[in-house]
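Q: Please design a sequence for this.
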């Protein structure tokens, strides 16, 4: 993995748009506490950017340092994260590791991973001279489910609940 360090102006850094779409933001109280922690202890983990310069790890940290009025920050740049499916996977997997996600956020992360795996499967299937590789059909769901720590069948049940269940059922 080709990663380099660079100092950038905070104003020049933009979050990846999928971050808010998939995970949303911390609550106001959580954000205030998080910002206070950064003000007190500093930035413990650098922002990480893809090859296009978008934040893929640290969107809430970016919000916090902006709120604190920081002008510059040291970032890690992943020059090898060029393909959008690789960028999105890194963004999702980082959030799965770092944040305490609600069931709804975990569900949205799994849906995003399933889309990524479907794109990858389509690329693999299109490359072979005789069509799809045997055994690759229908694997995107199972691969995505495994990455969020549930079975493929469990993920299918969650999809049914989130696509057809009422809000009370979804929150449980």
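A: Design:
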């Amino acid at each position: 993995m080709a990663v380099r360090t660079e100092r950038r102006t905070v104003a020049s850094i933009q979050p990846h748009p999928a971050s808010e779409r998939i995970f949303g933001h911390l609550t106001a109280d959580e954000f205030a506490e998080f910002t206070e922690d950064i003000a007190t202890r500093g930035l413990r983990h650098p922002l990480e950017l893809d090859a296009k310069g978008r934040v893929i790890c640290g969107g809430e940290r970016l919000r916090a340092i902006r709120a604190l009025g920081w002008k510059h920050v040291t970032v890690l740049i992943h020059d090898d994260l060029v393909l959008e499916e690789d960028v999105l996977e890194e963004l999702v997997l980082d959030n799965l590791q770092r944040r305490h996600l609600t069931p709804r956020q975990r569900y949205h992360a799994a849906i995003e991973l399933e889309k990524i795996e479907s794109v990858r499967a389509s690329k693999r299937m299109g490359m072979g001279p005789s069509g799809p590789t045997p055994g690759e059909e229908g694997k995107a769901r199972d691969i995505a489910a495994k990455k969020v720590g549930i079975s493929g069948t469990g993920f299918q049940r969650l999809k049914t609940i989130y696509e057809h269940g009422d809000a009370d059922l979804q929150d449980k």
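Q: Thanks. Anything notable?
A: The two ends are 39 Å apart (CA to CA). Confidence is low (pLDDT under 50) at residues 128-132.
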